[in-house]
Structures are given as structure tokens and as C-alpha cells.
Amino acid sequence: MSFNYTTHTALQLSFLLLLIPSLIVGEF
Hints:
Elements (H helix, E strand, L loop, with lengths): L1 H26 L1
Keywords: Membrane, Transmembrane, Transmembrane helix
């Protein structure tokens, strides 16, 4: 349970790290 929650959070963080630069580039 704890491991699954940690993996889910890690996936969300990596998704945000990939999404944020895309949004920044999209602004320019």
C-alpha cells in the first residue's frame, strides 16, 4: 500500500516535471 502510494506520487511528480517545461515553451 505504502509502496503503491509512493510510486503513484513519483509518477505524478515526473509527469509535472515533463508538463511544466512544455507549458513554458508553449507560452513562447
